[in-house]
Specification:
single chain; MetI-like fold; 14 helices; Carbohydrate ABC transporter permease; transmembrane helix; membrane
Length: 272
């Protein structure tokens, strides 16, 4: 009994230490975002003098709202595109019969082994030749199809009893009706999990928005943060910390509100 209590105490202690280490940068950044920059420059990292001036400067004196809007539009469009492509492909792989299905699915999965850095130059040349640079299309088109999404949603669809598909054929349902009335409601957890994952992945993307844009027309919030460091606000650490907290807020909200879907979707959706 004492051995179990000691083991549980050690587990809680290690988890608490690990959680503290992970959250420390976020907590420190949050405190600094409410601290005047003059105090930060003087080394007062734990000042009790809090102010909202930094946040006011972020929203009034910088184009952060414009960058946030660009990130929201691009992340939402890419998420919807990836879900549409993944649902269509996963449905075909699970419910339709056609030649070379397993081979095509294997080729689809093999694209996951191709690193993103190896795709940048071909994608850039394609967008440049199509005259789409500095546009929402250039930011989203290269990412509309996700092999991981096809694999994840396909695994979720395979949990659907095959008898339901056979019954829908007897009832005369079309493929679209079967998807809307049976497949999507049954796979809601998997779809929500992939949707959240897709949105966060695109929201936090940095390298491609930096390569595909040459001005602020469609640049995202991650590029905006980098620009704050490079402009005359480079020494205004209070403003930079406030802008950082604004940029990470959607990520924190989605993780906090969607953690139930992440846990259930990634365990029951991917691992059969």
């Amino acid at each position: 009994m004492k051995k179990n209590k000691l083991k549980r105490f050690l587990q809680i202690t290690l988890i608490s230490i690990g959680t503290g280490i992970v959250l420390m940068p976020l907590i420190l950044g949050g405190l600094l975002s409410f601290t005047p920059s003059q105090l930060i420059m003087q080394g007062h990292l734990l000042s009790t003098h809090f102010t909202l001036v930094n946040y006011r400067q972020v929203f009034i004196e910088t184009p952060m709202l414009q960058f946030l809007w660009h990130s929201l539009v691009i992340s939402t469009l890419v998420m919807l595109g990836q879900m549409l492509c993944a649902i269509s492909a996963a449905y075909a792989f699970v419910f339709l019969k056609f030649r070379f299905k397993r081979l095509i699915f294997g080729i689809c999965l093999s694209t996951m082994m191709l690193p993103f850095e190896a795709q940048i130059i071909p994608n850039f040349n394609t967008m440049r030749d199509l005259d789409l640079l500095n546009s929402y299309a250039a930011m989203g088109l290269p990412f509309m199809a996700s092999a991981f999404g096809i694999f994840m949603i396909k695994t979720g669809f395979e949990r659907l009893p095959n008898e339901l598909y056979q019954l829908s054929q007897l009832e005369g349902l079309t493929h679209l009706q079967f998807i809307n009335k049976v497949v999507l409601p049954y796979s809601k957890v998997t779809l929500v999990t992939f949707g959240l994952y897709s949105f966060l992945s695109n929201w936090n993307m940095y390298l491609w928005p930096l390569v595909a844009t040459t001005n602020d027309k469609v640049r995202t919030v991650q590029i905006g943060l980098r620009q704050l460091r490079a402009q005359d606000t480079a020494s205004n650490w209070g403003l930079i910390m406030a802008a950082t907290m604004v940029a990470v807020s959607p990520t924190l909200i989605i993780i906090f509100c969607g953690q139930r879907y992440f846990k259930s979707g990634l365990t029951s959706g991917v691992v059969k």
